[in-house]
Amino acid sequence: MKMDEPGRGKIDNFNKRSLYPLNREHLSKLKDWRNSQMDILRQWKPLTDYNQEKWFQKISEDNTQVIFAILTPNEKGSNMDFIGYCGITYIDFRNRRGEISFLVSPVRVQDKKLYREDFLSVLYMLCQYGFEKLNLHKIFAETFAFREDHIKILEDFGFHLDGILRDHQFIKNQYQDSLFHSILYGEWLQIKEKVKNVLEK
Fold this sequence. Notes:
Helices cover 37% and strands 33% of the residues. It is an alpha+beta fold. It has an 8-stranded mixed β-sheet, sandwiched between helices. It is globular, with a radius of gyration of 17 Å.
């Protein structure tokens, strides 16, 4: 994708990561990434092209979730590479809350430093979008307990541990706890500049 391709309006940009509307051209790669990382998702069987198309149709029409493609400039800086997707799902406008969704390519997951930078940058953009554009009061995340690095990033960003659901998911042939973290609107205002200054150094 070219940097300023018409009709593909940029949603947000921060720390060399950009959010764009998710398009059909992303679905095949996204399907492979989701299937290779099923253990960290609430997904119990491999996805097919048909599944992806139905999912894409649903998110295109459903106002309770906003899904974005995550893109970064390639090495030459002239084009953008698709590295993952993110969004806010299960949006409850009455109670003004929504859940974080985030996934990047397995190659980036293996690089802990890169994954941390990806996740922190996306969290910043999603919180800014959720609190300042969607007028949410609370943004939360569910994480399986074995994802210790992922949980540390959430907490380093400023998410608070709300609670633990014991033996909540059956993964890797055993039951796993689910940890729930959240940020409230008032907390976001306090940590926004702090996080921005750290990430942009």
